[in-house]
Amino acid sequence: MSKIIFDSGISLDGFFAGDNRGPQNPMGGVSGQIHSWMFNQKAFWEHLGLAGGNEDGADGKYIRETIERTGAYIMGKRMFEEGEAVWPNDLYKADVYVLTHEKREPWVQEGTTTFYFINDGIESALEKARKSAKGKDIRIQRGANTIQQYLNAGLIDEFFIHISPVLLGSGIRLFEGIDKDKYDLQIAEVIHSELTTHLRYILTKK
């Protein structure tokens, strides 16, 4: 049975992205601060089909396990717009459902990635993603607003947070406007590394 998960890096003061986010300024320019742990891992670059990374430790094991368990992705239009021009071909190696008001034919890439553009809401995207995932997990791939919608709808089973030791001071908060009474949360796993702290939570809807 597929689980609905998300996996996000945040700053120590709780920000998911910086200010003035857009296609010319992905994540508000803070990706290198929040995701430095990931960029340091060989597993991340292997997934892109590129050479890179200085380490292959517990962080890399986590990256590989998360990729392996994911059978389909859902993302918001903003994230798609930031990545469309720069992502390598077949980055996701699975079906990706983009929440948008734009009507657009599927973007079929070489390999196994196809982007589908969903105009009728988060539950429609989830229903389609379940069929694509074939029993693997469905990952809500960002942005923050998309994750917030799925959280507030009571649809998330598990999530991973990677807290980087940086203070941004302003930006987009991941848990802004979340219904605090929707779930009971349990810490299931903590993984320490030099550049981040990984936390895995299991959610039970009240």
Automatic annotation (TrEMBL):
Which segments constitute the Bacterial bifunctional deaminase-reductase C-terminal domain? Answer: 3-190
Biological process terms from the Gene Ontology for this record are: riboflavin biosynthetic process
Gene Ontology molecular function terms on file: 5-amino-6-(5-phosphoribosylamino)uracil reductase activity
Specify the domain of life of the species encoding this protein.
Answer: Bacteria
InterPro entries (alphabetical): DHFR-like_dom_sf, RibDG_C, Riboflavin_Biosynth_HTPR
Q: Which organism is it from?
A: Lacihabitans soyangensis
The name this protein carries in UniProt is Dihydrofolate reductase
The UniProt entry, under Pfam families, shows: RibD_C
